[in-house]
Automatic annotation (TrEMBL):
InterPro entries the record matches: Cupin_1, Germin, RmlC-like_jellyroll, RmlC_Cupin_sf
UniProt record, GO biological process: plasmodesmata-mediated intercellular transport; regulation of root development
Ligand binding (Mn(2+)): H130, H132, E137, H176
Organism: Noccaea caerulescens
Listed name of the protein: Germin-like protein
Cited SMART domains: Cupin_1
GO molecular function: manganese ion binding
Regions that span the bilayer: 21-40
Keywords assigned: Apoplast, Disulfide bond, Glycoprotein, Manganese, Membrane, Metal-binding, Secreted, Signal, Transmembrane, Transmembrane helix
Amino acid sequence: PIQDFCIRLKTKKNKKMKANTLFLLKALLLLSFIVCFTLASDPDPIQDFCIPKPNTSPHPDHVVTYLPCKNSSEVTTEDFVFSGLKTAGNFAETGLATVPVSPTNFPGLNTLGMSFVRADLKPGAINPPHYHPRATEVAHVVKGQVYSGFVDSNSKVYAKVMEEGEMMVYPKGLVHFQMNVGDVTATILAGFNSQSPGVQKIPSVVFGSGINEELLMKAFGLSLEQIGSLKRRFDPVI
């Protein structure tokens, strides 16, 4: 009986140890997920500012994290001033002009976790459905009337015609859009809580990225000819 008792006690201890080990593994996995999720956003600065050294800014399409800093003795007031939003950018055939502002062209923003854009839309022009994978956006209508909105993860649309002086927030990673519904060119100033928000324009992502044509036909119920027409419009390679 004593031997049986000892065996049962040992078995019970082994089960408890296994349970504790499993709990610790789950806790470590959860902690790893939280850490990875936290590090997915812009890191907090570890100094007052970091003005990038000349010629060290990456390509605008690349994620900007840390760039080599100038010596503080070389930093001037002009590093913290940007004058490029005074006028509209170059208008595309679609009637949209943008002036993006990031550490690439405004060094003072480096490591501060923010960026901006000026968007101008001619009457009837649109900023097509798109999203920013790394940032929430706040858009302020400076001039004109803009139909503006976003779609949540339940496919519900939140949209209205924005007047001068009004603002709208587009939550991080959600598809949003804008259209000038007024009679004059509209101007929007927008800010992001990341110095590299990224952008994915839905038409270009779907039809201009090389996704298999058969898949697109089945997904949208379109013919091969229709898919080909859309690909020619949005695929820069064709």
